[in-house]
Amino acid sequence: MDKAASTGHSDRCRIVVDTCCDFSPEVAANLDVDILGFPFIIDGEERTDDIWSSMSPKEFYDRMRAGARVSTSAVSLGRYIEFFTECAKEGTPTVYLCFTSALSSSYNSACQAADAVRAEYPNFELYVVDNALPCATGELLALEAVRQRSAGLTAKQLVDWANEAKTYVHGYFTLESFDALAAGGRIPPAAAQLTAKLDVKPELSYDLAGSLSLIGVNRGRKKALKSILKSFRENYVPDRTMPIAIMTADAEKDGDWLEAAVRKEEGCADVTIIRSSVGPTIGSHVGPGMVALAFWGKNRADKASLSDRIARRVRGQ
Questions:
Q1: Which InterPro entries match (predicted)?
Q2: How far is CA 186 from CA 149, 172, 287, 299, in A?
Q3: Is residue 173 part of a domain?
Q4: Domain with 249 in it: what CATH number?
Q5: How do beta strands 45-48 and 212-219 pair?
Q6: 130, 151, 166 — which closes off a domain?
Q7: How sure is the predictor about 303, in pLDDT bands with cuts at 50, 70 and 90?
Q8: Selected residue with higher pLDDT from 182 and 208
């Protein structure tokens, strides 16, 4: 298709996510959502995260337990240019809900690529949104974006909606150990060893920018799961039209416990709960045993500190 043909507009909006939101490929295909794969390296072999199409979660996490060296890298500028050029030639207005810029340089690369492609195809609508949401929270935003697209939002309207909606998505998770975070340089190895000896299990979340934040620490796994449930109880706003997501890194029994506990909460008996496995991109950094709960709830911006609110104004949010 030539450039002239690519300048036409369509009523359809193309929604793109990446593997950091751990969106099921089957579900994405059914909902007409594109997925960009992040690269990762395991024991020196570079691969593309295909969300368990070529490797099972158990195989991946068992290799991590056995000491496999795992790392990730950002999506390259060249890959973004290649993909966005394909979108431009196809011509459909495109919205990319990108993994949080607070945890990856991919967002900046995507913005640079988008600028380059828009310069080549000036009439092509292409938007890159910093979702500020790691893991399953990004999946919930994308699922609702699909519903809003079906309700008639244009690409530009969808961008405005996503930037407003993302502060209503909550996510809380715990880890089996800090080993993967230590291996990735995110905490000192000595701290990981100390917490292991004390059987300390964290409850983690993220701030408005998408950076990880420590909510609290617990002695033992079950207390950590109960702490996640408490956070859910305090922040969830019942709405049967919006699903809840539970994700695990080869920790299905704990996921089962959390699902059963959520079902007992008010308004949750019949709500849709999505169960999925944390993919290699996120799994490389959290390690086996992660359990996460994501849901729509109260506006997190309302609880932001004064400093965070000032920062949001500086960023124009």
A1: DegV, DegV_C, DegV_domain_contain
A2: 37, 18, 13, 28
A3: yes
A4: 3.30.1180.10
A5: unpaired
A6: 166
A7: confident
A8: 208
Q: Tens digit of pLDDT for each residue in 135-156?
A: 889 999 999 999 999 999 999 9
**The pLDDT of residue 149:** 97
Would you say 19 and 136 are in contact if contact means Cβ atoms under 8 Å apart? no
Report the Cα–Cα distance between both ends of the chain, in Å, rounded: 38
**What is the side-by-side strand order in the sheet with 291-296?**
212-219, 200-206, 169-174, 291-296, 244-248, 273-277
- Answer yes or no: do 199 and 295 share one domain: yes
Burial of 138 (0-12, 13-18, 19+ CB in 10 A): buried
H or E stretch at 212 = strand 212-219
pLDDT in tens, 155-172: 999 999 999 999 999 999
Does the pTM exceed 0.85? yes
Contact 277, 22 (CB under 8 A): yes
For residue 115, give its domain range: 14-38+75-166
**What is the residue whose two structure tokens read 């809003």?**
148
Structural tokens at position 238: 């019942």
The single residue listed with the structure tokens 């991919």 is 106
Residue 222 lies in a domain: yes
166, 182, 200: which is the final residue of a domain? Answer: 166
